[in-house]
Amino acid sequence: MENNELSIAYAEVYEILSFMEPKYIDKIPLKLMELFREEKLKDYKPNIEPTIPLDEQKLQKKTLIILAMLNINYWCEDENEKKTDIEKIIVDNKTVIYSIVFYACSLAIGTVLYRLLQSSALDSVLKPSNANFSKLFSQNICNYLSLFLITVFLAFCLIGYGLINIIPCVIGIQVGMKAAYFYINYQAKGVGYTILMIAPFAALFLTVLIFVIQTSSNMSKQIVDITKNNLDYKLEVKPTLRKFLIYGLIIIAFSGVCALIETLLKSVVTI
238, 236, 243, 250: which is closest to 216 by C-alpha? Predict the structure, then answer.
């Protein structure tokens, strides 16, 4: 899905460049132009209207990011304009940035919380499970889908975009507490176990969830704008629901893959 979106963006960028003057094309490295041409989605025909500003056309977000980077690296000669373009990229991707920052901070909070709350009861919750594949799969489904469904619910709330960053915080605290548990109780062996059995799965899940958070945040902001400004605007819900369905299926598949890998690795990696 991610590769498909990037291929569509390449196709849109390549089409936009075809309308530009040669002096701009000449500044772009040939290898980069070849990348756009070779990796663009071949059966996709971008609907670009040269007389309409790009920010008023329905372009992929990645298309706008690529164009902004081309402007910064090859076309823009004004330092102030470069700074503005960089700020725009940051603003356009602030949901992703916030999610990563909140997750990183929550990792530290999780380790501190474990030290403060350390007890045999807490250790029994955090210690590795000896469950088989089906039980691990069920546990993953419950854990991952619960966070996913909360994120989807926040998409249709007026305050959803403000609360959405609680989700990466929850993941960060959970991973931080587990990492602290393994380090304190098993030292170097615990660090190795965390790197092999916890960190990769948490990072992959967070990556998928960031896309869900971004979609949810955008929908919630649209609802706020329509409500606050009394706009006579029909909210397009179907494309968002379609994205949520795809993300949900990915998370279910991810839960199964994680359970399978964890089951297989248990015979090799022990603690």
Answer: 243
Spatial distance between the Cα atoms of 271 and 195, rounded to a whole number of angstroms: 13
- Cβ neighbours for 92, distance < 8 A, ≥ 6 positions apart: 61, 64, 65
Decide if 164 contacts 216 (C-beta within 8 A).
Answer: yes
pTM of the predicted model as reported, rounded to 2 decimal places: 0.65
260-269: long-range contacts at Cβ-Cβ below 8 A with a sequence spacing of 24 or more?
260/133, 261/201, 262/136, 262/197, 262/201, 263/132, 263/133, 263/136, 265/196, 265/197, 269/192, 269/193, 269/196, 269/197
Q: Does the pLDDT value for residue 166 go beyond 80?
A: yes
pLDDT at 47 over 90: no
Cβ(161)–Cβ(224) below 8 Å: yes
- Report angle CA 44, 46, 52 to the nearest 5 degrees: 170
Q: What is the mean pLDDT of residues 83-91?
A: 61
Per-residue model confidence as pLDDT tens digits over 94-135: 778 888 999 999 999 999 999 999 999 998 888 887 778 899
Predicted local confidence at residue 77, as pLDDT: 65
Cβ count near 202 (within 10 Å): 20
